[in-house]
Design goal:
The complex is a heterodimer of chains A (252) and B (98). Chain A is an all-alpha fold and 252 residues long. Helices cover 71% and strands 0% of the residues of chain A. Chain A has one domain. The N and C termini of chain A lie far apart (53 Å). The chains are: A mainly alpha (252), B mainly alpha (98). Chain B: Pfam families: ATPase_gene1. Chain B: This is AtpZ/AtpI family protein.
Chain lengths: 252, 98
């Protein structure tokens, strides 16, 4: 697939194919959905097994589960304050789902479901709806004062309010595009350099094999970088959700 | 103060001394580290507000049949919102604990 002809085919890795042939086709179940289920299963298994033993001195699995918990707990309470604990399960679920989606996608033969804007936008829209509902539930109609900063001159209202509303509506778009673009860019780069390895390696005998080491080394570095990006994007998604929740709870 | 509280307190002091307990998130509004991360973040914020502004303008134009005036108006509003997004990125609204 990689080096058919001489073209670099970096985008076919994002194509959706039915999972398990005709069976998946009949219920429109793609490999993307299968990986989501896998991520869900792995997260559940990690949290169930990791917390089952409840040792005072945690083993490896328990330490992993606990550090994940405490990491997100720190983000939520740090941004939203003590009232934020109510929203911890929501932010934790989102964080783990994005993190596992990004990480599973780095394994060979795996598919990155966070590289599809449909998936990331669905997540971002969920965050947007939850945040808006939380703000409306806490503040009622007072929520709409969010769109007009205190102390601004009344004459500027026709100018400020549309701009504030557009800024508010742009949140799910920036949230989803950031995750989606980072994942796509990373995987395209990996594929391009991997194709270079095959192209150079098969080109000119021994000299080609020596030359192929260069893109290979680049790819090794890129995989390390992608692990960083996978974690960082999940972190950014979680912290932005917390920041939006802070705005919803405190309204200024 | 019972023994356990005393232990917790001494543990906390020891951890702070060793710099293990960092004060919670000191990053500005979740800004990613590194110039590339910040640049990408700024670009996405600017473009996404512009996209929303243009989208609203086009939809209202189609609904009210005022092509192309509302599109032009909301294009400018979207650009302003994008720049405000970036301003907020570096100077968050007051009252946010960071």
């Amino acid at each position: 697939m990689a080096a058919e002809g001489k073209a670099i085919d970096a985008l076919s890795q994002f194509e959706l194919v039915p999972f398990m042939g005709a069976l998946g086709e009949s219920v429109r179940f793609s490999q993307s959905n299968a990986h989501m289920l896998l991520a869900f299963g792995l997260i559940t298994a990690l949290m169930m097994w990791g917390t089952a033993k409840r040792s005072i001195v945690p083993g490896r699995l328990q330490a992993l589960a606990e550090s994940g918990y405490e990491f997100v707990h720190g983000i939520v309470t740090g941004q939203v304050g003590d009232q934020g604990k109510r929203y911890f399960p929501f932010v934790f679920s989102i964080f783990m789902f994005v993190l596992f989606g990004n990480m599973i996608g780095l394994l060979p033969y795996a598919f990155t479901f966070t590289s599809h804007i449909a998936v990331t936008f669905a997540l971002a829209a969920l965050v947007f709806v939850v945040v808006t509902v939380v703000a409306l539930a806490i503040h009622g109609t007072h929520f709409f004062s969010y769109f007009f900063p205190e102390g601004a001159p009344k004459a500027l209202a026709p100018l400020i309010i549309p701009i504030e509303i557009i800024s508010y509506l742009s949140r799910p778009i920036s949230l989803s595009v950031r995750l989606f673009a980072n994942m796509v860019a990373g995987h395209v780069m990996l594929k391009v350099f991997a194709t270079f390895v095959v192209m150079i390696g098969s080109a000119a005998g021994v000299l080609g094999l020596i030359g192929a080491v260069l893109p290979m080394a680049m790819n090794v570095a890129l995989v390390g970088f992608e692990i960083l990006v996978a974690f960082l994007q999940a972190y950014v998604f979680a912290i932005l959700t917390s920041i939006y929740l802070h705005d919803a709870v405190h309204l200024h | 103060m019972n023994e356990r509280d005393d232990f917790e307190r001494r543990l906390r002091e020891a951890r702070t001394r060793q710099g293990l307990d960092k004060p919670a998130e000191d990053a500005k509004g979740g800004l990613p580290p590194g110039p590339m991360g910040i640049g990408f973040r700024v670009g996405v914020e600017l473009v996404s507000a512009l996209v929303v502004g243009v989208g609203i303008g086009l939809l209202l134009d189609r609904w009210l049949g005022t092509k192309p005036w509302l599109f032009l108006l909301f294009f400018v509003a979207g650009a302003a919102a994008g720049i405000m997004n970036i301003y907020r990125l570096f100077n968050p609204r007051s009252g946010r604990k960071i």
